[in-house]
Amino acid sequence: ILNVEQSPQSLHVQEGDSTNFTCSFPSSNFYALHWYRWETAKSPEALFVMTLNGDEKKKGRISATLNTKEGYSYLYIKGSQPEDSATYLCAFGNTGNQFYFGTGTSLTVIP
Amino acid sequence: NAGVTQTPKFQVLKTGQSMTLQCAQDMNHNSMYWYRQDPGMGLRLIYYSASEGTTDKGEVPNGYNVSRLNKREFSLRLESAAPSQTSVYFCASSERGAQYFYGYTFGSGTRLTVV
């Protein structure tokens, strides 16, 4: 069983604050790392897919970095808005054609 | 809207009953997956189908069977439901191999309770 850990488990921030959270994964047999945004009562939606060490991806106010050698990825949200409230999932894909999901970070942005 | 459609959205079963969860995608994806989500745990892969005509076990296959009916449809069957199968089930799809570059497209989930 592969361990993919996300921290913190939950987070409350004020509107306008910037925040970040972590996904840790095994540093061996790395193939890809996904970030998903999962709003309540909806399906997870892919935010970022990263495959190379040092990758940085950005979509609006949200960005992500990847360090495959040490086995972690950070997701950053700049100037959080209430519509950013969601659970953010990461998934580690190895060379065995399988993805392993973390338990997610639940973000609540308080207006 | 294009995507992954799961039915039913909610279901309550008695222990020992059987049921089939249906999943269909209209994106012409080759690969389809069934995951379950339990409190305090990440999504765990039950079964997947890399392409039409093939199915493989994932991390937690016991108590389940699957059928890849055609390219669009991938069903999950519980032959004799147990309380341990109470969970939220998600179907997902991707182009074969493309899950490494584009991620999965998920359905909206089926909440199953076994009493």
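The longest strand of chain A covers residues 30-38.
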